[in-house]
Amino acid sequence: MSETKTKPTGADVSAFLDTVEHPTRRADGHALRTLFERVSSEPACLWGPSIVGFGSRHYRYESGREGDTPRIAFSPRKASLVFYLHHYDGYDADLATLGKHKPGKGCLYIGKLADVDQARLETMVRKAWEASA
C-alpha cells in the first residue's frame, strides 16, 4: 500500500499564503484562514505543499487503507479556491443558496469569496467541522 502524501508539514502557513500569485486569491486565503480558525478553534496547519487544514481525524476504509486527514481544509489553487468539507445532512441545500460555485468529488470550487454568500459559507464550514468529529 502506498503512503499518503498529504501530511502535516510544519511549514509556515502565512508564508505559504503570501506566495499565492493571484492577489484576490491570496487575500481570500488569509480571510479563509481567519474564518476556519474561528470556526474550529484550531490553528492552521499546512498539509502537503498546498492544503491549509484544521484539526485532524483518522479514517479507515474497508480495504484496510487508513490515515489521517484534516477535519476541514482549503487550498488557494491557481484556478480557484478549493474546499475540503465533510458532507453533512443539508449540505446540498446549503450549496443551493451558496452562490457561484462548482461541486467536485469530495471538494467544492469557488472562484473568489466575493462570488458566494459569506454567512452561508461560514455555516457550511461550521457544519462540516461538527460533522467530522
UniProtKB/TrEMBL annotation:
Domain spans labelled YdhG-like: 25-128
Show the InterPro entries listed in the entry.
YdhG-like (IPR014922)
Q: What is this protein called?
A: DUF1801 domain-containing protein
Source organism of this protein record:
Sphingomonas glaciei
- Which lineage is the organism of this entry classified under, starting from the top rank? Bacteria, Pseudomonadati, Pseudomonadota, Alphaproteobacteria, Sphingomonadales
